[in-house]
């Protein structure tokens, strides 16, 4: 079902914490405890090291690619409390901005949908989330949501750009008035949804409770298809939840347990068409999940078949697939 | 508890013992009831230092076994910032020293209790401004402090008076940064000062025994060799040290007195090297295992290793750090491992046993390293704190040099002193800070950044590939660190299990692999192929549908292919054929249309068609045919066409939103189904005129053949069994009423709309948009514009991600949504230069703001041209189209009079 097409020899000296492919799927950025960020060209199964970015003074937890319409921009966040925005200029990668507004490790970075401009959300262990907005001329404006998650914020993920309300209210031809939203997950076991008010301030819109331990990752599904909003979340408690909201106002979210794993679940990642969810857990295993006709999530693939426990639904899913 | 008191005489032993094994126990009056304090099961043997009368009464050998230290994370407020702390060897008391504080606290279960204030006397003395403090690890009554004015003071807690000050050494000229007791010799004290000297004191003497200069070069130049007196003296010290252990305490003390107390010792010579030449000493530490060795660190980044017997030169010197080396610590177990910390934010671990100091590990911290202390009982752990910026205390595993194993975040200001509470207990750490607090940290309460660290990276790539980075087995890491031995294609690292007992056991590394998933698993190859091969316009609807169905089928997407086929059936009726010509070509059209339709449509038809309905249908069919034929080639009215029976059946089948009686399906007689085939094709008139409609009903004979063949039923079965995987479906038949009565005009549109929603929901926005484009007005009105726009933008975004610019552009062009079609315009920029100054026009107006003239004046009428402006590209003069045309009729020269022979194409 799943086969390795490329093993990237990253030559990182310590653990890799994140790997992200760019918008076109041609480059892979990795970051590691060894304080470096590396960029590889992975076209056609190759693995050419393009850049080795050094500038952080602690383990680098996450990287995020900006939309290519703004150029080649990569953001990285680190244990050293800094967020660095790297930019490729004439073939060389250089530090373009450094944000040092957090009091503790910065755990997650995520670029907003390109429709909003260059906006970066950063979640930190100091419990705050900061939003960096590029205002041109190399300047970044910082907004900070203090105490977003007590003990710390582990993940941030933007909602896709969707125009609020129906088109009937929309004066035609005008630039749509987007409502910016993002989700965050933290050590308070909560997922919170944030919304930008008209005055530009960020306000907590929703608090989603279901996890019984730290939320490790949240992923807002790309909006391809219906205007239903979907968020996947995973936690230290081994559970993965799929949150959906059908109602246009975005107020009622219902969780559905995808699966309870035996170990910490570190990551959830949506396929670009948002119909498959990849989940990686503490057992070094990746599973792929797809919603079946009756609304149940079934495991369609398991890169570590035969290892560990395979739940009934998993087996069933695999049979269906064959 | 197993505590026993002995007099000094009883405890005396004459046998040789390893250096570490002899101890003096001071009275433990304070902790007599604190039996819970842990004492290691060492051979605690009183060696009887009877030369110290003060200590005589208090000599107690304590052998507490079995119990462990207890306590909790706690802190207490000090009156002033601390500069250093040191723990008594009973692990129950801690001394805190600072510029204006010098106190002893008892460490109790729940709190710190102030026990003794050593700052006595009215006058604050600079001697009490402590830079460092050390508590003797053998003698619970003995402390030494280093003062900022260069004085080294020793304190005897056994003194009856309030003032416990014992001796005062005023030999250093500047701040003494560090004092250190010999780990096994009761009377030997070492100090290191800013003035560049290290001094060794015998506490039984009034002044230093030897002085070491940081400036001294390695394997000395013989500065001292020419001084026989000093040489002799040193040799005797050596003698004393070497033999002291095995001797009876008294005789040893006597000899020491004799040798060290050499009255005419040339002190001046001892401090030989001139002050100012030397680098400041930041730390001095006696080696724990090597009796004569101590290490010193310097502001210039050097580390020196000395033999206490040879003050003339250091044994070894090397540059350890870039910038000052603030601290060092010998590993408590591994002889020869020295950890050094510097301003360069690094902690390095050196193996000093080899000929050249070898760097074993290098830990990179966030801020400069002020103190470093090996963690007891944990071979690879050490604690550090910084002197600026960072207030936290970190415990590092030297094998994980980038991530701290633990972090203590209690302090609000710089941590100045750290000490493990007991040399054999790894869980209690004490610290003093500039924020005037004293803390006890419990290791289990520490925040563990490693635990927070995400050991895996996961990313869904564009093409459905997965990049997955995972922690590699530590076993593998230990044995050779070859992550990719063997066949690289197999993710062997997934199978390795971590040893849960020791999650932090070794080097950490990750393996990164990119996985390929099958189409069903999210691969996106089909998307690209489909996007490239689909035909969206420029051909008749039926052809487009057929083409797309074929594409879909070739890519193995049967459901989609089926949908296309049915769309064709729904919207392309033979009745639509506008000309007699086409009507004649019925047979032809059928034969060319059918192969594409394949067995699918047959099968699709089948379930819905009850035998009873057949006649009605054919009736209806005839009717609609006639209607259509009546209507002229161009305009076909909607009302007449929608109602066709065959077509709604597949739609229902697909969408599954109409209740059906399944029983009926099985009653179907294959023969009945075929005659109905032609009727499935529906006329639809809202079709754009540019699309020529060539579709014709399939030939009945042909159908008959197909249906009769057993192959058909076989494929039906196949399809049926396949279907559940992809989509919700229920087989249904359409009630007769539908056929009898006229269907409402939008009957199919609703179904098609649902179908589009279905695809979009499945993530196949490509299908939704393609159908939307191809069907155009037929379905547009049924789907709200916001949704359409959303589909368009989603699809365009996807296309652009796959760099399918041409397809994307085509979609933009074909889209009917205003917001989408203006996308192309929005990104088109027109650059205009002023015709006079040839500079770019920055403003939107007619006036160039550089030359302040109207940019586009008509050369003929001298008015501003606001509409079409024609100009000669040679001289850039021009004007209104009519004017210029008129002008050129008369003259070929430029109307502006520039003399240019204008050329217009």
From TrEMBL, chain A:
Source species, domain of life: Eukaryota
Keyword Nucleus belongs to the record: yes
Name of this protein: Protein SEC13 homolog
One of the GO biological process terms: protein exit from endoplasmic reticulum
Biological classification of the source: Eukaryota, Metazoa, Chordata, Craniata, Vertebrata
Family per similarity comment: Belongs to the WD repeat SEC13 family.
InterPro entries: Sec13/Seh1_fam, WD40/YVTN_repeat-like_dom_sf, WD40_repeat_dom_sf, WD40_rpt
Localization in the cell: Lysosome membrane; Nucleus, Nuclear pore complex
Sequence ranges of the WD repeats: 9-50, 53-96, 208-243
Function: As a component of the GATOR2 complex, functions as an activator of the amino acid-sensing branch of the mTORC1 signaling pathway. The GATOR2 complex indirectly activates mTORC1 through the inhibition of the GATOR1 subcomplex. GATOR2 probably acts as an E3 ubiquitin-protein ligase toward GATOR1. In the presence of abundant amino acids, the GATOR2 complex mediates ubiquitination of the NPRL2 core component of the GATOR1 complex, leading to GATOR1 inactivation. In the absence of amino acids, GATOR2 is inhibited, activating the GATOR1 complex.
GO CC, alphabetical: COPII vesicle coat; lysosomal membrane; nuclear pore outer ring
One of the record's GO molecular function terms: structural molecule activity
Main location: membrane
Keyword terms of this UniProt record: Lysosome, mRNA transport, Nuclear pore complex, Nucleus, Protein transport, Repeat, Translocation, Transport, WD repeat
TrEMBL record, chain B:
Gene Ontology cellular-component terms listed: cytosol; GATOR2 complex; lysosomal membrane
The keyword DNA-binding belongs to this UniProt entry's keyword annotation: no
GO MF terms, alphabetically ordered: ubiquitin protein ligase activity; zinc ion binding
Segment forming the signal sequence: none
One Pfam family hit: WD40
Residue numbers spanned by region Disordered: 695-715
Source organism, top-level taxon: Eukaryota
Keywords (A to Z) from UniProt: Metal-binding, Repeat, WD repeat, Zinc, Zinc-finger
PROSITE patterns documented for this protein: WD_REPEATS_1, WD_REPEATS_2, WD_REPEATS_REGION
Listed GO biological process terms: cellular response to amino acid starvation; cytoplasmic translation; negative regulation of TORC1 signaling; negative regulation of translational initiation; positive regulation of macroautophagy; positive regulation of TORC1 signaling; positive regulation of translational initiation; protein K6-linked ubiquitination
SUPFAM superfamilies reported in the protein's UniProt record: WD40 repeat-like (SSF50978)
Per-repeat ranges for WD: 169-211, 318-360
Job description of the protein: Catalytic component of the GATOR2 complex, a multiprotein complex that acts as an activator of the amino acid-sensing branch of the mTORC1 signaling pathway. The GATOR2 complex indirectly activates mTORC1 through the inhibition of the GATOR1 subcomplex. GATOR2 probably acts as an E3 ubiquitin-protein ligase toward GATOR1. In the presence of abundant amino acids, the GATOR2 complex mediates ubiquitination of the NPRL2 core component of the GATOR1 complex, leading to GATOR1 inactivation. In the absence of amino acids, GATOR2 is inhibited, activating the GATOR1 complex.
Family named by the database record: Belongs to the WD repeat WDR24 family.
PANTHER family reported in the protein's UniProt record: GATOR COMPLEX PROTEIN WDR24
Protein name listed in UniProt: GATOR2 complex protein WDR24
Native source species: Rhinopithecus bieti
């Amino acid at each position: 079902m799943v086969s390795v097409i490329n093993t990237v020899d990253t030559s990182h000296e310590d653990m890799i914490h994140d790997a992200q492919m760019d918008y076109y799927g041609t480059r892979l950025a990795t970051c590691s405890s060894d304080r470096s960020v590396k960029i590889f060209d992975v076209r056609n199964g190759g693995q050419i090291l393009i850049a080795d970015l050094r500038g952080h003074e602690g383990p680098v937890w996450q990287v995020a690619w900006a939309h290519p319409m703004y150029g080649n921009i990569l953001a990285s966040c680190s244990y050293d409390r800094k967020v660095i925005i790297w930019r490729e200029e004439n073939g060389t990668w250089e530090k373009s901005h450094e944000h040092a507004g957090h009091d503790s490790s910065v755990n997650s970075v995520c670029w907003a949908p390109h429709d909003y401009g260059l906006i970066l959300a950063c979640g930190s262990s100091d419990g705050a989330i900061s939003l960096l907005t590029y205002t041109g001329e190399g300047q970044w404006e910082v907004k900070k949501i203090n105490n977003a998650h007590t003990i710390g914020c582990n993940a941030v993920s933007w909602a896709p750009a969707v125009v609020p309300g129906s088109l009937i209210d929309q004066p035609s031809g005008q630039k749509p008035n987007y409502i910016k939203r993002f989700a965050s997950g933290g050590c308070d076991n909560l997922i919170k949804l944030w919304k930008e008010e008209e005055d530009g301030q960020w306000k907590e819109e929703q608090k989603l409770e279901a996890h019984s331990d730290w939320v490790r990752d949240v992923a807002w599904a790309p909006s391809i298809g219906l205007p239903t909003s979907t968020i996947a979340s995973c936690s230290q408690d081994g559970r993965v939840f799929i949150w959906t909201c059908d109602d246009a106002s975005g107020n009622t979210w219902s969780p559905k347990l995808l699966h309870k794993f035996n170990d910490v679940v570190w990551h959830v990642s949506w396929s670009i068409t948002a119909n498959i969810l990849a989940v990686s857990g503490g057992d070094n295993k990746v599973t792929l999940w797809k919603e079946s006709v009756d609304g149940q999530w079934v495991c369609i693939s398991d890169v570590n078949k035969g290892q560990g426990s395979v739940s009934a639904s998993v087996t069933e899913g695999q049979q269906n697939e064959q | 508890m197993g505590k026993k008191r002995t007099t000094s005489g009883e405890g005396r032993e004459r046998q040789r013992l390893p250096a570490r094994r002899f101890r003096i126990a001071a009275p433990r009056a304070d902790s007599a009831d604190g039996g819970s304090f842990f004492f290691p099961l060492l051979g605690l043997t009183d060696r009887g230092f009877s030369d110290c009368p003060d200590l005589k009464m208090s000599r107690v050998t304590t052998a507490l076994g079995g119990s462990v230290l207890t306590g909790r994370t706690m802190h207490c407020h000090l009156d002033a910032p601390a500069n250093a702390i040191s723990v008594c060897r009973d692990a129950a008391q801690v001394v805190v020293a600072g510029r204006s504080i010098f106190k002893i606290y008892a460490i109790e279960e729940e709190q710190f209790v102030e026990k003794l204030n050593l700052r006595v006397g009215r006058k604050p003395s600079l001697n009490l401004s402590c830079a460092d403090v050390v508590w003797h690890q053998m003698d619970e009554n003995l402390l030494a402090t280093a003062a900022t004015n260069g004085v080294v003071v020793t304190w005897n807690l056994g003194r009856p008076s309030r003032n416990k000050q014992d001796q005062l050494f005023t030999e250093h000229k500047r701040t003494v940064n560090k004092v250190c007791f010999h780990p096994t010799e009761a009377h030997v004290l070492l100090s290191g000062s800013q003035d560049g000297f290290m001094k060794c004191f015998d506490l039984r003497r009034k002044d230093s025994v030897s002085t070491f200069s940081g400036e001294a070069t390695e394997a000395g130049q013989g500065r001292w060799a020419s001084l026989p007196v000093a040489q002799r003296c040193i040799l005797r010290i050596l003698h004393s040290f070497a033999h002291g252990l095995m001797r009876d305490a008294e005789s040893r003390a006597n000899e020491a007195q004799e040798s060290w107390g050499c009255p005419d010792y040339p002190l001046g010579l001892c401090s030989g090297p001139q002050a100012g030449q030397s680098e400041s000493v930041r730390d001095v530490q006696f080696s724990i295992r090597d009796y004569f060795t101590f290490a010193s660190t310097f502001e210039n980044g050097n580390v020196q290793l000395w033999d206490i017997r040879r003050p003339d030169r250091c044994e070894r010197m090397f540059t350890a750090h870039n910038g000052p080396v603030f601290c060092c610590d010998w590993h408590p177990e591994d002889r020869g491992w020295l950890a050094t910390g510097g301003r360069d934010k690094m902690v390095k671990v050196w193996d000093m046993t080899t000929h050249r100091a070898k760097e074993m590990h290098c830990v990179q911290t966030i801020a400069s390293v002020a103190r470093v202390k090996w963690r007891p009982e944990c071979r690879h752990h050490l604690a550090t704190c910084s002197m600026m910026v960072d207030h936290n205390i970190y415990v590092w595993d030297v094998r994980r040099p980038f991530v701290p194993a633990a972090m203590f975040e209690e302090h609000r200001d710089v941590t100045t002193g750290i000490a493990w509470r007991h040399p054999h207990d790894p869980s209690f750490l004490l610290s003093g800070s500039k924020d005037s607090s004293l803390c006890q940290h419990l290791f289990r309460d520490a925040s563990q950044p490693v635990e927070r660290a995400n050991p895996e990276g996961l990313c869904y790539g564009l093409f459905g590939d997965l990049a997955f980075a995972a922690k590699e087995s530590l076993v593998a890491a230990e044995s050779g660190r070859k992550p990719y031995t063997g066949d690289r294609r197999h993710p062997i690292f997934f199978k390795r299990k971590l040893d849960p007992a020791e999650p932090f056991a070794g080097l950490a590394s990750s393996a990164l692999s990119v996985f390929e998933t099958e189409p069903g698993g999210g691969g996106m190859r089909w998307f690209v192929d489909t996007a490239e091969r689909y035909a969206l316009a420029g051909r008749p609807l039926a052809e487009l549908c057929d083409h797309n169905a074929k594409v879909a089928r070739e890519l193995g997407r049967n459901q989609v292919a089926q949908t296309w086929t049915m769309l064709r059936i729904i919207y392309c009726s033979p009745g639509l054929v506008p000309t007699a010509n086409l009507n004649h070509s019925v047979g032809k059209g059928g034969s060319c249309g059918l192969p594409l339709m394949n067995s699918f449509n047959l099968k699709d038809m089948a379930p819905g068609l009850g035998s009873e309905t057949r006649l009605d249908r054919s009736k209806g069919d005839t009717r609609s045919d006639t209607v259509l034929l009546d209507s002229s080639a161009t305009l076909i009215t909607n009302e007449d066409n929608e109602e066709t029976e065959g077509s709604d059946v597949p739609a229902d089948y697909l969408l599954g939103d109409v209740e059906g009686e399944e029983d009926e399906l099985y009653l179907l007689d294959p023969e009945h189904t075929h005659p109905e085939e032609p009727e499935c094709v529906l006329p639809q008139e809202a079709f754009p005129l540019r699309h020529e409609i060539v579709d014709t009903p399939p030939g009945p004979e042909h159908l008959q053949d197909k249906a009769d063949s057993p192959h058909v039923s076989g494929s039906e079965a196949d399809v049926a069994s396949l279907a559940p995987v992809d989509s919700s479906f229920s087989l249904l038949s359409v009630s007769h009423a539908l056929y009898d009565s006229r269907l409402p005009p939008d009957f199919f549109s609703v179904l098609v709309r649902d179908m589009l929603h279905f695809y979009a929901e499945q993530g196949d926005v490509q299908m939704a948009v393609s159908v939307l484009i191809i069907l155009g007005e037929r379905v547009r009105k049924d789907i709200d514009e916001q949704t359409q726009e959303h589909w368009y933008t989603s699809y365009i975004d996807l296309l652009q991600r796959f760099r399918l610019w041409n397809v994307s552009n085509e979609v933009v062009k074909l889209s009917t949504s205003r917001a989408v079609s203006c996308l192309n315009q929005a990104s088109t920029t027109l650059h205009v230069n002023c015709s006079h100054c040839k500079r770019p026009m920055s403003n939107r107006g007619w006036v160039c703001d550089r030359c302040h003239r109207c940019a586009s004046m008509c050369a003929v009428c001298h008015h501003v041209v606001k509409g079409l402006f024609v100009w000669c590209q040679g001289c850039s003069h021009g004007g209104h189209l009519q004017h210029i045309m008129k002008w050129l009729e008369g003259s070929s020269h430029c109307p502006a009079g520039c003399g240019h022979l204008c050329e217009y194409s």
